[in-house]
Design goal:
single chain; 226 residues; mainly alpha; 0% strand
Length: 226
């Protein structure tokens, strides 16, 4: 009886640990959805800059080359970010719900490992787009206006970089100190045959009142390999 109670306790602890792990999975999933949505918006802006930007015929070739190179980098980075977040959301959710035992751990760890690559691509998309606007200003505007655009955008890029570093330091933490449920989720759940047999006998004894009249078949069949 104590062995059966121990098995039940282990099952409940493991179920609660899986529910907590699911919260972590939902956190990563929502973060990727947010980044993917913003990357799609930036990709739309970049495509507009690529297709509808008026280039004067007398514009220097070097400025046009740098402008379209930066725009292409930004578009590629943002589309890459959208593709990665979509793939992670679809396949990560499928693995966590439909995969074999231990799939929740694989899904969460996999999404966590991919986050840096996705966030880096998002950052590249933002900074290359802002850099392309600087060169676009020198192509389409007069010198005074181009200088003003350059100063404002460089200031914005510098503030964005400084604040990103500040927020990362403010909310960052040592990964070795994070909460981990792997020891609970990987606990040995193999049950001896005697425990299963005893649990079935106890269940049939207390549930015998619900057995149909004239039926000799136990409510819970227990088969033990000899």
């Amino acid at each position: 009886m104590l062995a059966a109670d121990k098995l039940l306790l282990q099952s409940r602890i493991r179920q609660n640990a899986i529910q907590l792990k699911d919260k972590e999975f939902q956190l990563h999933n929502e973060n990727f959805a947010t980044v993917g949505t913003q990357a799609a918006v930036l990709a739309g802006f970049t495509m507009t800059a690529f297709a509808e930007m008026y280039i004067p015929p007398e514009a220097p070739r070097i400025l046009k080359f740098i402008y379209f190179t930066l725009v292409t980098f930004s578009l590629s980075a943002n589309l890459y970010c959208v593709g990665q977040t979509t793939t992670l959301s679809v396949f990560g959710t499928s693995l966590s719900l439909r995969g074999p035992d231990g799939s929740m751990i694989r899904a969460v760890d996999g999404m966590y490992a991919e986050r840096r690559q996705v966030f880096s691509a998002f950052a590249v998309g933002i900074f290359t787009l802002m850099s392309a606007i600087i060169f676009g200003g020198w192509i389409a505007l007069e010198t005074e206006a181009a200088l003003s655009v350059t100063f404002i955008l460089l200031l914005a890029m510098w503030k964005l970089w400084i604040n990103s570093r500040r927020l990362y330091s403010k909310f960052g933490f040592d990964e070795s100190e994070s909460i981990n449920f792997d020891d609970i989720l990987n606990m040995d759940m193999n049950v001896p045959r005697q425990v299963l047999h005893r649990a079935g006998e106890v269940a049939n004894r207390y549930m015998g009142a619900f057995r149909d009249e004239g039926s000799e078949e136990p409510l819970i069949g227990v088969q033990v390999d000899r």
